[in-house]
Amino acid sequence: MSKDPEGKRNRLGIMGGTFDPIHYGHLVAAEMARCEFDLSTVLFIPSGTPPHKNSQDVSAADLRYEMVALAIKDNPAFDLSALEVERKGLSYTVETLRILRRTWPEHELYFITGTDALLEIFSWREAEEILTMIQFIGAARPGFDASDFLLKVEQEHPETQEKIHYLEVPALAISSTDIRLRVRHGQPIRYLLPEPVRIFIQQHGLYVTE
Ligand code: NAP
């Protein structure tokens, strides 16, 4: 079904991230975005090979994918895509969005990601094309100051202003970097992420060494 009973276009949330590992901050951000922007589904798309990272610094894509599957399985409004994990080469967002545009032609697409990633959007491959296809939701950590970025958008890319939204997500005080460091230093990570994901990390010996 592509339209709701009032005839509005349905909205699909696309949750893009490396998710190394996924944690409660991501899940709360996705759920808040779903409610705030009236998204019918949030599709999680773990990056295969992130274009802006050294691939040796990132856990294997199939492991990150499995952790996302474990984390979202009890929410019927969340779904998972292997689009980037299965694609060869670097995971350019524009290529993913072209496929999603064809798959969901009637839906409005909302790409949800962290504000740190959003700050770099204009350097992404075919950024202008991306901003014709989607609305952006930047999930911000508490205390994030968007004023410099908003000024830059207003001055340099005014046509995109209405397509970029912010969502402050207090739970994003949790970060994947912090979780990896905690594991390496033998500190607890329970309650920072779903328990099945914590057990998966333990069973696969993830993040123990640098
Ligand atoms: P990142 O640089 O690892 O993360 C930037 C910040 O945003 C981190 O603080 C991260 O926190 C947070 N974050 C990332 N994804 C999030 C999400 N979905 N919700 C809330 N916070 C999130 O960014 P990344 O994860 O590798 O990339 C984010 C998305 O941008 C991916 O879909 C990626 O493919 C896309 N991207 C595309 C291009 C391109 O096409 N050229 C370039 C860069 C990024 P945590 O570390 O706690 O997750």
Automatic annotation (TrEMBL):
Its EC number is 2.7.7.18. InterPro entries: Cyt_trans-like, NadD/NMNAT, Rossmann-like_a/b/a_fold. One of its GO terms (molecular function) is ATP binding. GO terms for biological process: NAD+ biosynthetic process. Gene3D superfamilies: HUPs. Pathway: Cofactor biosynthesis; NAD(+) biosynthesis; deamido-NAD(+) from nicotinate D-ribonucleotide: step 1/1. Keywords: ATP-binding, NAD, Nucleotide-binding, Nucleotidyltransferase, Pyridine nucleotide biosynthesis, Transferase. Residues 14-181 form the Cytidyltransferase-like domain. It catalyses: nicotinate beta-D-ribonucleotide + ATP + H(+) = deamido-NAD(+) + diphosphate. Catalyzes the reversible adenylation of nicotinate mononucleotide (NaMN) to nicotinic acid adenine dinucleotide (NaAD). Belongs to the NadD family. This is Probable nicotinate-nucleotide adenylyltransferase. It comes from Candidatus Desulfosporosinus infrequens.
